[in-house]
Amino acid sequence: MTDEPLVLGIETSCDETGVGIVRGHTLLADTVASSVEEHARFGGVVPEVASRAHLEAMVPTIERAAETAGVALSDVDAIAVTSGPGLAGALLVGVASAKALAIGLGKPIYGVNHLAAHVAVDQLEHGPLPEPCLAMLVSGGHSSLLEVSDVTVGVEPMGSTIDDAAGEAFDKVARLLGLPFPGGPHIDRQARSGNSVAIDFPRGLTSRRDLERHRFDFSFSGLKTAVARWVEAQQRSGATIDVADVAASFQEAVCDVLTRKAIDAASSRGIEDILIGGGVAANSRLRAMAEERAGAAGIRVRVPRPGLCTDNGAMVAALGAELVARGRTPSLLDLPADSSQPITTVVA
Ligand code: KG4
Ligand code: ZN
Hints:
Elements: E1 6-11, E2 16-23, E3 26-34, H1 36-40, H2 47-69, E4 78-84, H3 88-105, E5 109-113, H4 114-120, H5 123-126, E6 133-138, E7 143-150, E8 154-160, H6 166-176, H7 184-191, H8 208-214, H9 221-236, H10 243-268, E9 273-277, H11 284-296, E10 300-302, H12 306-309, H13 313-325
Parallel strand pairs: 1-4, 4-5, 6-9, 9-10
Antiparallel strand pairs: 1-2, 2-3, 6-7, 7-8
Helix pairs in contact: 2-3, 4-13, 6-9, 6-10, 7-10, 10-11
Zinc ion is lined by residues 114, 118, 139, 278, 311.
Protein backbone atom coordinates (compact mmCIF):
# COMPACT_ATOMS: atom_id res chain seq x y z
CA MET A 1 0.00 0.00 0.00
CA THR A 2 1.47 3.35 -0.95
CA ASP A 3 -0.45 5.36 1.64
CA GLU A 4 1.51 3.78 4.46
CA PRO A 5 3.92 6.22 6.11
CA LEU A 6 7.56 6.23 5.03
CA VAL A 7 9.63 6.86 8.16
CA LEU A 8 13.36 7.13 8.83
CA GLY A 9 14.46 6.10 12.33
CA ILE A 10 17.71 6.92 14.12
CA GLU A 11 19.05 4.96 17.11
CA THR A 12 22.14 6.04 19.08
CA SER A 13 21.31 5.15 22.70
CA CYS A 14 24.35 2.91 23.21
CA ASP A 15 27.15 1.75 20.89
CA GLU A 16 25.17 1.12 17.69
CA THR A 17 24.57 3.90 15.17
CA GLY A 18 21.39 2.57 13.59
CA VAL A 19 19.42 4.07 10.73
CA GLY A 20 16.30 2.27 9.53
CA ILE A 21 13.73 3.10 6.89
CA VAL A 22 10.28 1.50 6.89
CA ARG A 23 7.05 1.92 5.00
CA GLY A 24 4.29 0.97 7.44
CA HIS A 25 5.22 -2.54 8.55
CA THR A 26 7.63 -3.12 5.67
CA LEU A 27 11.35 -2.90 6.33
CA LEU A 28 13.23 -1.14 3.52
CA ALA A 29 16.63 -0.58 5.12
CA ASP A 30 18.32 -1.38 8.42
CA THR A 31 21.85 0.00 8.46
CA VAL A 32 23.96 -0.35 11.58
CA ALA A 33 27.48 0.88 12.29
CA SER A 34 28.72 -0.51 15.60
CA SER A 35 31.58 0.79 17.73
CA VAL A 36 31.53 -2.43 19.80
CA GLU A 37 35.10 -3.34 18.83
CA GLU A 38 36.40 -0.03 20.18
CA HIS A 39 34.91 -0.93 23.60
CA ALA A 40 35.90 -4.60 23.72
CA ARG A 41 39.24 -4.06 25.44
CA PHE A 42 37.48 -2.13 28.25
CA GLY A 43 34.96 -4.94 28.83
CA GLY A 44 32.03 -2.53 28.52
CA VAL A 45 30.78 0.46 26.55
CA VAL A 46 32.76 3.68 27.16
CA PRO A 47 30.22 6.52 26.74
CA GLU A 48 32.60 9.13 25.32
CA VAL A 49 34.04 6.69 22.78
CA ALA A 50 30.49 5.76 21.73
CA SER A 51 29.45 9.42 21.26
CA ARG A 52 32.42 10.17 19.02
CA ALA A 53 31.82 7.03 16.97
CA HIS A 54 28.17 8.07 16.46
CA LEU A 55 29.30 11.47 15.24
CA GLU A 56 31.60 9.92 12.64
CA ALA A 57 29.16 7.23 11.53
CA MET A 58 25.95 9.27 11.35
CA VAL A 59 26.05 10.86 7.88
CA PRO A 60 27.45 7.81 6.03
CA THR A 61 24.93 5.54 7.79
CA ILE A 62 21.99 7.77 6.79
CA GLU A 63 23.26 7.85 3.21
CA ARG A 64 23.68 4.07 3.08
CA ALA A 65 20.19 3.50 4.48
CA ALA A 66 18.58 5.80 1.90
CA GLU A 67 20.53 4.10 -0.89
CA THR A 68 19.56 0.60 0.31
CA ALA A 69 15.90 1.58 0.61
CA GLY A 70 16.01 3.27 -2.80
CA VAL A 71 14.30 6.38 -1.46
CA ALA A 72 15.21 10.06 -1.46
CA LEU A 73 15.32 11.63 1.99
CA SER A 74 12.84 14.24 0.74
CA ASP A 75 10.28 11.42 0.28
CA VAL A 76 10.08 10.47 3.97
CA ASP A 77 6.94 11.45 5.88
CA ALA A 78 8.59 11.74 9.29
CA ILE A 79 11.83 11.33 11.22
CA ALA A 80 11.86 9.22 14.40
CA VAL A 81 14.74 9.15 16.85
CA THR A 82 15.47 7.48 20.19
CA SER A 83 15.26 10.30 22.74
CA GLY A 84 15.89 7.98 25.71
CA PRO A 85 16.67 6.08 27.83
CA GLY A 86 20.35 5.55 27.09
CA LEU A 87 23.76 7.20 27.32
CA ALA A 88 23.27 10.99 27.43
CA GLY A 89 26.07 11.96 25.03
CA ALA A 90 25.23 9.18 22.59
CA LEU A 91 21.52 10.09 22.56
CA LEU A 92 22.40 13.74 21.92
CA VAL A 93 24.14 12.89 18.65
CA GLY A 94 21.04 11.08 17.38
CA VAL A 95 18.58 13.71 18.54
CA ALA A 96 20.63 16.58 17.06
CA SER A 97 20.98 14.72 13.75
CA ALA A 98 17.25 13.98 13.63
CA LYS A 99 16.43 17.62 14.30
CA ALA A 100 18.77 18.73 11.50
CA LEU A 101 17.04 16.32 9.09
CA ALA A 102 13.54 17.32 10.24
CA ILE A 103 14.27 21.02 9.83
CA GLY A 104 16.13 20.61 6.55
CA LEU A 105 13.41 18.42 5.03
CA GLY A 106 10.47 20.20 6.68
CA LYS A 107 9.16 16.96 8.22
CA PRO A 108 7.74 16.15 11.68
CA ILE A 109 10.01 14.60 14.29
CA TYR A 110 9.09 11.94 16.88
CA GLY A 111 11.44 11.51 19.85
CA VAL A 112 10.64 7.95 20.95
CA ASN A 113 11.29 5.63 23.85
CA HIS A 114 13.99 3.03 23.18
CA LEU A 115 12.10 0.28 25.05
CA ALA A 116 8.83 0.89 23.21
CA ALA A 117 10.83 0.69 19.96
CA HIS A 118 12.15 -2.76 20.99
CA VAL A 119 8.48 -3.79 21.23
CA ALA A 120 7.29 -2.14 18.00
CA VAL A 121 10.03 -3.71 15.84
CA ASP A 122 8.27 -7.07 15.88
CA GLN A 123 5.61 -5.62 13.55
CA LEU A 124 8.20 -5.66 10.77
CA GLU A 125 8.41 -9.41 11.07
CA HIS A 126 5.08 -10.67 12.37
CA GLY A 127 2.60 -7.90 11.49
CA PRO A 128 0.35 -5.89 13.84
CA LEU A 129 1.01 -6.38 17.57
CA PRO A 130 -1.61 -8.31 19.51
CA GLU A 131 -3.33 -5.89 21.90
CA PRO A 132 -2.77 -6.30 24.75
CA CYS A 133 0.48 -8.24 24.83
CA LEU A 134 3.04 -8.92 27.51
CA ALA A 135 6.47 -7.66 26.46
CA MET A 136 9.61 -8.99 28.07
CA LEU A 137 12.56 -6.74 27.23
CA VAL A 138 15.94 -8.18 28.07
CA SER A 139 19.14 -6.43 27.06
CA GLY A 140 22.43 -5.09 28.35
CA GLY A 141 20.75 -2.16 30.06
CA HIS A 142 17.26 -3.34 30.94
CA SER A 143 15.15 -6.34 31.92
CA SER A 144 11.47 -5.63 32.25
CA LEU A 145 8.01 -7.09 31.98
CA LEU A 146 5.53 -4.67 30.45
CA GLU A 147 1.85 -4.79 29.66
CA VAL A 148 1.40 -3.18 26.26
CA SER A 149 -2.13 -2.25 25.27
CA ASP A 150 -1.16 0.28 22.56
CA VAL A 151 2.56 0.76 21.95
CA THR A 152 1.99 4.32 20.66
CA VAL A 153 0.26 5.45 23.84
CA GLY A 154 1.71 3.81 26.87
CA VAL A 155 3.30 0.82 28.35
CA GLU A 156 2.58 -0.35 31.88
CA PRO A 157 5.59 -1.67 33.81
CA MET A 158 4.80 -4.87 35.76
CA GLY A 159 8.31 -5.72 36.94
CA SER A 160 11.99 -5.16 36.27
CA THR A 161 15.43 -6.12 37.50
CA ILE A 162 16.35 -4.92 40.97
CA ASP A 163 20.09 -5.13 40.23
CA ASP A 164 21.88 -6.31 37.06
CA ALA A 165 20.17 -6.48 33.67
CA ALA A 166 19.99 -9.94 32.06
CA GLY A 167 22.49 -8.99 29.32
CA GLU A 168 24.80 -7.49 31.91
CA ALA A 169 24.81 -10.85 33.72
CA PHE A 170 25.69 -12.62 30.44
CA ASP A 171 28.50 -10.10 29.83
CA LYS A 172 29.92 -10.38 33.37
CA VAL A 173 29.81 -14.17 33.48
CA ALA A 174 31.43 -14.32 30.02
CA ARG A 175 34.22 -12.16 31.37
CA LEU A 176 34.70 -14.53 34.32
CA LEU A 177 35.03 -17.38 31.85
CA GLY A 178 37.54 -15.50 29.70
CA LEU A 179 35.10 -15.03 26.79
CA PRO A 180 35.11 -11.79 24.74
CA PHE A 181 32.71 -8.81 25.11
CA PRO A 182 29.80 -8.69 24.53
CA GLY A 183 29.52 -12.08 26.16
CA GLY A 184 25.92 -13.12 25.40
CA PRO A 185 26.53 -14.64 21.96
CA HIS A 186 29.67 -16.44 23.23
CA ILE A 187 27.85 -17.99 26.21
CA ASP A 188 25.04 -19.00 23.85
CA ARG A 189 27.53 -20.75 21.55
CA GLN A 190 29.50 -22.42 24.37
CA ALA A 191 26.30 -23.60 26.06
CA ARG A 192 25.30 -25.65 23.01
CA SER A 193 27.98 -28.23 23.83
CA GLY A 194 27.55 -27.99 27.62
CA ASN A 195 25.38 -29.75 30.18
CA SER A 196 22.72 -27.39 31.50
CA VAL A 197 22.14 -29.41 34.67
CA ALA A 198 25.85 -29.81 35.50
CA ILE A 199 25.72 -27.05 38.14
CA ASP A 200 22.63 -26.01 40.07
CA PHE A 201 22.94 -22.20 40.03
CA PRO A 202 20.41 -20.08 42.02
CA ARG A 203 17.18 -18.73 40.52
CA GLY A 204 16.87 -15.16 41.83
CA LEU A 205 13.62 -13.90 43.39
CA THR A 206 11.75 -17.19 43.05
CA SER A 207 11.41 -18.25 46.70
CA ARG A 208 7.91 -18.03 48.14
CA ARG A 209 8.95 -15.09 50.31
CA ASP A 210 10.55 -13.17 47.43
CA LEU A 211 7.52 -13.78 45.25
CA GLU A 212 5.32 -11.95 47.75
CA ARG A 213 7.15 -8.67 47.12
CA HIS A 214 8.88 -9.29 43.80
CA ARG A 215 6.60 -11.61 41.84
CA PHE A 216 7.47 -10.02 38.46
CA ASP A 217 10.90 -8.60 39.31
CA PHE A 218 14.29 -10.09 38.43
CA SER A 219 17.64 -10.27 40.21
CA PHE A 220 20.75 -11.56 38.48
CA SER A 221 23.53 -10.31 40.72
CA GLY A 222 23.33 -13.30 43.12
CA LEU A 223 23.58 -15.66 40.16
CA LYS A 224 26.65 -13.84 38.84
CA THR A 225 28.27 -14.06 42.30
CA ALA A 226 27.41 -17.77 42.53
CA VAL A 227 29.15 -18.38 39.19
CA ALA A 228 32.20 -16.40 40.38
CA ARG A 229 32.37 -18.40 43.66
CA TRP A 230 32.02 -21.70 41.81
CA VAL A 231 34.82 -20.79 39.37
CA GLU A 232 37.08 -19.64 42.25
CA ALA A 233 36.45 -22.84 44.19
CA GLN A 234 37.32 -24.96 41.16
CA GLN A 235 40.50 -22.95 40.58
CA ARG A 236 41.53 -23.30 44.24
CA SER A 237 41.11 -27.05 44.13
CA GLY A 238 43.11 -27.22 40.92
CA ALA A 239 40.21 -28.66 38.91
CA THR A 240 39.81 -27.70 35.27
CA ILE A 241 36.79 -25.57 34.47
CA ASP A 242 34.44 -26.88 31.84
CA VAL A 243 33.45 -23.56 30.25
CA ALA A 244 30.65 -25.14 28.21
CA ASP A 245 29.03 -26.67 31.33
CA VAL A 246 29.26 -23.40 33.30
CA ALA A 247 27.85 -21.46 30.33
CA ALA A 248 24.98 -23.92 29.85
CA SER A 249 24.11 -24.08 33.57
CA PHE A 250 24.23 -20.29 33.95
CA GLN A 251 22.16 -19.74 30.78
CA GLU A 252 19.61 -22.29 32.00
CA ALA A 253 19.20 -20.40 35.30
CA VAL A 254 18.62 -17.06 33.50
CA CYS A 255 16.20 -18.50 30.94
CA ASP A 256 14.31 -20.48 33.59
CA VAL A 257 13.55 -17.35 35.64
CA LEU A 258 12.82 -15.14 32.64
CA THR A 259 10.34 -17.54 31.05
CA ARG A 260 8.65 -18.51 34.31
CA LYS A 261 8.02 -14.88 35.30
CA ALA A 262 6.94 -13.79 31.82
CA ILE A 263 4.35 -16.56 31.62
CA ASP A 264 3.15 -15.87 35.17
CA ALA A 265 2.80 -12.14 34.34
CA ALA A 266 0.84 -12.84 31.15
CA SER A 267 -1.41 -15.41 32.85
CA SER A 268 -2.09 -13.06 35.78
CA ARG A 269 -3.63 -10.54 33.36
CA GLY A 270 -5.26 -13.02 31.02
CA ILE A 271 -2.87 -12.03 28.21
CA GLU A 272 -2.40 -14.63 25.48
CA ASP A 273 0.64 -13.23 23.65
CA ILE A 274 4.19 -12.72 24.88
CA LEU A 275 6.67 -10.69 22.87
CA ILE A 276 10.37 -10.92 23.68
CA GLY A 277 12.75 -8.14 22.64
CA GLY A 278 16.19 -6.69 23.35
CA GLY A 279 19.62 -8.21 22.71
CA VAL A 280 19.16 -11.22 25.02
CA ALA A 281 16.08 -12.22 22.98
CA ALA A 282 18.66 -13.38 20.42
CA ASN A 283 19.55 -16.19 22.85
CA SER A 284 18.74 -19.58 21.34
CA ARG A 285 17.87 -21.30 24.64
CA LEU A 286 15.58 -18.44 25.73
CA ARG A 287 13.70 -18.64 22.45
CA ALA A 288 13.29 -22.41 22.65
CA MET A 289 12.32 -22.50 26.34
CA ALA A 290 9.83 -19.64 25.94
CA GLU A 291 8.11 -21.39 23.03
CA GLU A 292 7.94 -24.69 24.86
CA ARG A 293 6.68 -23.38 28.21
CA ALA A 294 4.32 -20.76 26.79
CA GLY A 295 2.90 -23.33 24.39
CA ALA A 296 2.10 -25.59 27.33
CA ALA A 297 0.30 -22.65 29.02
CA GLY A 298 -1.70 -21.83 25.87
CA ILE A 299 0.24 -18.61 25.26
CA ARG A 300 1.70 -17.56 21.91
CA VAL A 301 5.27 -16.21 21.72
CA ARG A 302 6.65 -13.71 19.23
CA VAL A 303 10.36 -13.04 18.99
CA PRO A 304 11.82 -10.95 16.17
CA ARG A 305 14.81 -12.43 14.32
CA PRO A 306 18.12 -11.84 16.18
CA GLY A 307 19.21 -8.90 13.98
CA LEU A 308 16.07 -6.98 14.96
CA CYS A 309 16.44 -7.85 18.68
CA THR A 310 19.73 -6.02 19.19
CA ASP A 311 19.74 -2.22 18.93
CA ASN A 312 18.99 -0.94 15.44
CA GLY A 313 17.37 1.95 13.58
CA ALA A 314 14.55 -0.14 12.09
CA MET A 315 12.92 -0.49 15.50
CA VAL A 316 12.78 3.28 15.88
CA ALA A 317 11.41 3.69 12.36
CA ALA A 318 8.82 0.95 13.06
CA LEU A 319 7.53 2.77 16.14
CA GLY A 320 7.62 6.08 14.22
CA ALA A 321 5.52 4.61 11.40
CA GLU A 322 2.97 3.33 13.92
CA LEU A 323 2.79 6.78 15.55
CA VAL A 324 2.18 8.43 12.16
CA ALA A 325 -0.36 5.76 11.14
CA ARG A 326 -2.31 6.28 14.38
CA GLY A 327 -2.21 10.08 14.05
CA ARG A 328 -0.18 10.72 17.21
CA THR A 329 1.15 14.23 17.84
CA PRO A 330 4.83 14.71 16.91
CA SER A 331 7.45 16.03 19.34
CA LEU A 332 8.40 19.69 19.49
CA LEU A 333 11.65 20.78 17.87
CA ASP A 334 13.17 21.58 21.26
CA LEU A 335 12.84 17.89 22.11
CA PRO A 336 15.51 16.93 24.69
CA ALA A 337 17.59 13.77 24.90
CA ASP A 338 16.53 12.19 28.20
CA SER A 339 18.93 9.53 29.46
CA SER A 340 16.34 8.29 31.96
CA GLN A 341 13.15 8.67 29.88
CA PRO A 342 10.51 6.59 31.70
CA ILE A 343 8.91 3.67 29.87
CA THR A 344 5.54 5.30 30.36
CA THR A 345 6.63 8.15 28.02
CA VAL A 346 6.45 6.71 24.50
CA VAL A 347 6.86 10.05 22.68
CA ALA A 348 8.93 12.82 24.32
O1 KG4 B 1 19.55 -4.60 23.06
P1 KG4 B 1 21.06 -4.62 23.00
O2 KG4 B 1 21.72 -4.73 21.66
O3 KG4 B 1 21.65 -3.33 23.67
C1 KG4 B 1 21.15 -2.76 24.84
O4 KG4 B 1 20.19 -1.94 24.75
O5 KG4 B 1 21.70 -3.15 25.90
O6 KG4 B 1 21.54 -5.81 23.97
C2 KG4 B 1 22.91 -6.13 24.14
C3 KG4 B 1 23.01 -7.26 25.15
C4 KG4 B 1 24.41 -7.60 25.57
O7 KG4 B 1 24.47 -7.73 26.98
C5 KG4 B 1 24.68 -8.96 24.90
O8 KG4 B 1 25.59 -9.78 25.61
C6 KG4 B 1 23.29 -9.55 24.88
O9 KG4 B 1 22.44 -8.46 24.58
N1 KG4 B 1 23.15 -10.60 23.86
C7 KG4 B 1 22.90 -11.90 24.17
C8 KG4 B 1 22.89 -12.62 22.94
N2 KG4 B 1 23.12 -11.72 21.92
C9 KG4 B 1 23.26 -10.49 22.53
N3 KG4 B 1 22.71 -12.50 25.36
C10 KG4 B 1 22.48 -13.84 25.34
N4 KG4 B 1 22.49 -14.59 24.22
C11 KG4 B 1 22.68 -14.03 23.00
N5 KG4 B 1 22.66 -14.80 21.89
ZN1 ZN C 1 18.24 -1.90 23.51
